[in-house]
Design goal:
Topoisomerase I, Chain A, domain 3, 13 helices, 3-stranded antiparallel β-sheet
C-alpha cells in the first residue's frame, strides 16, 4: 500500500543523513503529493507528470522547494526516471511561485543582550549566546552533540547537518569571545569525562523557540544580530554570507537590512 512505500521512503531519507526535521518535512510533503493515490501498491502505478502538475499549484517558494526536493528524493529512492522536459517544467513552475515573507518584528540588540545576560539558566544562556556568536539556525544548534565538537587552544568547532541536508561546520574563536569559549570548553570536557559523547550540548529547537518568545525575541532575531555583528567587524557582505551560509547574497542583504536595532556594538561578557 501507499504508506508502506512512504515508510520505506522515510527510512531512505534518514539513511542519507538528513536531520529528523528535514526527513519529516519531506515525508509529509510527499504524502500530500500522493494523497490521490489511494490504492498504490508499487511505484509502477505512479504518474510522475501528475505529481509535477500538482507542484504547479503550490503558491509559495518555501513550500514548493520542500515539495520539489521531496519528489526528487522519492524518485531517487524508487529509481523513477524524470526526463529533461519534466525537470524543465519543475524549474519553470519554481520561477512562477512567490516567496512568503514573514513580517519581521522590531528587535533591539542591547535589550536582548541584557535579557540573555540576566538569565539564571546557564545552559539556556549559553545556547542563546552561541547562536549570536555563530549565526547558527536554531535547528542546527539543537542537533549538536558533544561528539560533534572539536576543541583546540584557539577555537571550538561544531559539525552539523545544515539547510538542505548538507554537512556544515562553524567555529567559536577564543580571541573573539573568551568567556563563551571557556564555558563551552569546560562543558564539553565535563561531558567527555563522564562518557557522555552522545549528549546534546544545547537545548532542543522547540524549547529554545518557546523561551525566546517568552523573553520577547525570536531565534531568528539572534541570527540577524549575528549577521550585523559580523558586518560591523569585517565590513564585508561576503564574509557575512559565508558565516551564515546563505546561498545568495540577496539573502544576506535582507538580514543586514532587517529591523534589528544595533546600538551597542560590544558583545559583552559571559558571566
Amino acid at each position: 500500500m501507499k504508506y508502506n512505500l512512504l515508510s520505506n521512503y522515510k527510512l531512505f531519507l534518514a539513511s542519507l543523513g538528513l536531520r529528523p526535521n528535514t526527513v519529516n518535512t519531506y515525508y509529509n510533503r510527499m504524502a500530500r503529493l500522493l494523497e490521490e493515490h489511494y490504492l498504490m501498491n508499487d511505484c509502477s502505478k505512479i504518474d510522475v507528470s501528475s505529481l509535477i502538475t500538482k507542484l504547479s499549484h503550490i503558491h509559495y517558494k518555501n513550500h514548493f522547494s520542500q515539495s520539489k526536493n521531496a519528489l526528487l528524493y522519492f524518485c531517487k529512492c524508487y529509481h523513477i526516471n524524470i526526463d529533461s522536459r519534466q525537470l524543465k517544467d519543475i524549474e519553470r513552475f519554481q520561477q512562477q511561485v512567490k516567496k512568503k515573507y514573514r513580517k519581521a518584528t522590531k528587535a533591539e540588540y542591547p535589550k536582548i543582550k541584557r535579557t540573555i545576560d540576566r538569565l539564571k539558566n546557564k545552559k539556556l544562556k549559553v545556547s542563546f549566546l552561541t547562536m549570536i556568536e555563530t549565526g547558527l539556525r536554531v535547528s542546527e544548534l539543537s542537533q549538536i552533540k558533544v561528539s560533534d565538537c572539536m576543541v583546540s587552544a584557539e577555537k571550538i568547532g561544531f559539525s552539523f547537518i545544515g539547510k538542505g541536508g548538507k554537512k556544515a561546520f562553524s567555529t567559536i574563536s577564543k580571541k573573539d569571545n573568551p568567556p563563551l569559549y571557556m564555558c563551552l570548553k569546560d562543558t564539553i570536557y565535563y561531558y567527555r569525562d563522564k562518557g557522555l559523547d552522545n549528549k546534546r550540548l544545547f537545548y532542543s529547537s522547540q524549547y529554545l523557540q518557546q523561551k525566546a518568545k517568552l523573553y520577547g525575541f525570536s531565534c531568528l532575531d539572534l541570527r540577524r544580530i549575528s549577521a550585523k555583528l559580523e558586518y560591523q567587524k569585517s565590513k564585508s557582505k561576503h564574509q557575512v554570507r559565508n558565516k551564515l551560509r546563505h546561498a545568495k547574497i540577496k539573502t544576506t542583504d535582507i538580514y543586514l537590512d532587517s529591523s534589528v536595532k544595533m546600538k551597542d556594538k560590544t558583545r559583552g561578557d559571559f558571566k
